[in-house]
Structure formats: structure tokens, C-alpha cells
Design brief:
With 323 residues, this protein is of the alpha/beta class. 45% of the residues lie in helices and 14% in strands. A nine-stranded mixed sheet has the order 1-9-8-7-6-5-2-3-4, sandwiched between helices. The longest helix has 21 residues.
């Protein structure tokens, strides 16, 4: 895998930029707010933890705004972006960081015909997958708005980015975390699809960050034993450095998935691309590439039709269903 180690000077390019992010009250999100503030950015962040969110805002009242946000609710995320747009008249970068860990055991060993009658609450899917999907759709709409330096629409194109936080569970198996693992795989799939279209249709680079064990409240129960076993741990500030570094990289960051272990980052997409003939087979890889070219260019394909008509969010069939 290719190392990803963003140069600190790149972060200075975010000075004066408007960044909207979720999960900014604690952990990796709060560390990201700190780093953005240190580099002169204007931050509007959402979180469900109002007490912690207000404390973060109080540290930097002149350039950081907290908005109470439930990422599982579309209107709540929309309100977050509206708050940023109303204050600064633009959005330059957007980071989807909020997440929750596995909440209940859908596949408990005691599962039987009686317990199947109890409908499990899909909160992990709502927060960790539906939330990033909602966030990405709304972010795409706001990020594509081009403004000049005086805040008027129609300015020159600037580097815009969307960074999605997935997990090592987004590309590796995670025993005991089936719903979390499914959601994080979904986030990586979302990025891999959007990286093919949003740069062209919206002028937005799309990337993902996939941290391994990180010292946040989500892993309080196992962090101590994990460290005593000599296993690597990410500090929130180290993951924040990767997130912000991807945004600062601009177009060059598009399509990257950065695996973060022990505070160091590697782009897994480069490795997958370079070894595709090995794990997929050369014949199959070549056939897949031909198929991708076809889908990108053939008028009958959904990808071509959506791109050529500038439509996003819904297919024609979905639009007719919605009236």
C-alpha cells in the first residue's frame, strides 16, 4: 500500500475555508474541529451531544459554530448545512465523521423462533450508513454552489471536497460487529461510486478514511487490554490529520481510501488497483474494465444517463414514484 502522509503546509490552504462536519463534539470529530481551527478554517459542526458540542464551540466562539444534529434525520442534516450557508454564503468542504458502534446483537446465540418476533432497531444502519448517504447528497448540493471572494454566486471554481469516515471494518471482517461492518462497507461503496461522478458533475473530490482502533469512547471497554497486548492505537488527532489532509489535497485526493493504523495512513485503493490482476484474475480484470468503459459511455446505462442529464439523488423511476 502507498503511504499517505500529508504535508503540514497543505493544511494552511484551508485558512478561511468553510467546513461542515458531523460528530464534532467528541473523539475524532472534536480533534478535527481543533485542527481546522488551528489552521484558520471556519467550522460549522453538528452532533447529537449538545453539552459536549457547546463546550467545543465555547473554546473557539469566533470561528466555530455548533448545531444540534441527528445524522439519521435528513431534515436535521439539511438544517446543519443551511446554518453554515446562512452564515458564510458558501460551503467549501464537508466531512461525515459521526458514528456509533454495534448497539445490540442481531445474531445472538440464543436467537430462536420466539425472539425473532422482536423487531431490532436498525440504529447503527441509520447513523453509520443512511446518515453518510444523506450527508453526501446534501453536501453535493451545497458544495457545487460556486461563489466569488465577496460571497456572490458565480465565482471561479475552487477545490471542494467530501470526506467520508468509514473504518477498517469497511474492508475487513469484524467478528461480533455484523451491522457496523455492513454499514462501514456501505460507506466505502458509496465513496467508490461517487468518486466516479462527483468530480465531473459537481467539481467535488470524494475520499474516505478507514481508521483501525482509535482511542475514543467507542472502545473504552477494550482500549486498556488492547494497548497492553502491544497493538497499535490511533489518537483522535492523528486521524483528524488524515481527514483534513485529504481535503487539503484537493483533486489529488479523489478516490482515495486511507487506512489509519497507529497514527499512520496508507491508501488501500492504490494497492487494490495495482494487484487487481492477481486477486481478480487478468482475464476477469480486463473484462471488467471493458464493462466499466461500456457503462460509462453507453446511452442506455443509468450511469451515463444520470451524468449527461445532470441528475443526482433519484433515478427517473424514483422521481415518478415521488410525484
Amino acid at each position: 500500500m502507498a503511504r499517505f502522509d500529508p504535508e503540514p503546509f497543505l493544511l494552511y490552504g484551508l485558512r478561511g475555508k468553510v467546513i461542515v462536519l458531523t460528530g464534532g463534539a467528541n473523539g475524532i470529530g472534536a480533534a478535527t474541529v481543533d485542527l481546522l481551527y488551528e489552521n484558520g478554517a471556519l467550522v460549522v459542526f453538528g452532533d447529537l451531544d449538545a453539552d459536549a458540542g457547546k463546550k467545543v464551540e465555547a473554546r473557539y466562539p469566533e470561528r466555530v459554530q455548533f448545531v444540534s444534529t441527528d445524522v439519521s434525520i435528513y431534515s436535521s442534516l439539511l438544517n446543519l448545512f443551511h446554518a453554515a450557508y446562512a452564515k458564510y454564503h458558501r460551503v467549501d468542504h464537508a466531512f461525515s465523521i459521526a458514528g456509533v458502534s454495534e448497539q445490540s446483537s442481531w445474531f445472538h446465540p440464543s436467537l430462536d423462533l420466539n425472539s425473532l418476533e422482536n423487531v431490532p432497531e436498525p440504529i447503527v444502519l441509520k447513523v453509520d450508513l443512511l446518515g453518510p448517504i444523506y450527508f453526501s447528497r446534501i453536501a453535493a448540493g451545497f458544495l457545487r454552489q460556486r461563489t466569488s471572494t465577496d460571497g456572490n454566486e458565480g465565482g471561479t471554481a475552487e477545490k471542494k471536497s467530501l470526506v467520508l469516515v468509514s473504518s477498517v471494518a469497511g474492508f475487513m471482517e469484524s467478528p461480533g460487529l455484523p451491522i457496523y461492518c455492513a454499514a462501514k462497507h456501505g460507506v466505502l461503496g458509496l465513496m467508490r461510486s461517487l468518486r466516479c461522478s462527483l468530480p465531473q458533475t459537481h467539481g467535488i473530490s470524494v475520499s474516505a478514511v478507514c481508521p483501525w482502533m482509535s482511542a475514543t469512547s467507542m472502545v473504552d471497554d477494550i482500549e486498556g487490554p488492547w494497548q497492553r497486548a502491544g497493538l497499535p492505537v490511533n489518537q483522535p488527532a492523528e486521524v483528524a490529520q488524515i481527514i483534513v489532509g485529504l481535503a487539503a489535497l484537493g483533486d489529488e485526493g479523489n478516490g482515495k481510501s486511507i487506512y489509519v493504523e497507529g497514527g499512520r495512513g496508507w491508501d488501500i485503493e492504490t494497492g487494490l488497483e495495482q494487484t487487481r490482476n492477481q486477486w481478480m484474475g487478468q482475464k476477469q480484470s480486463e473484462a471488467w474494465l471493458e464493462g466499466e468503459k461500456f457503462l460509462r459511455s453507453h446511452p442506455a446505462s443509468a450511469a451515463y444517463w444520470l451524468g449527461q442529464n445532470g441528475i443526482q439523488g433519484s433515478t427517473a423511476e424514483e422521481k415518478s414514484d415521488q410525484g
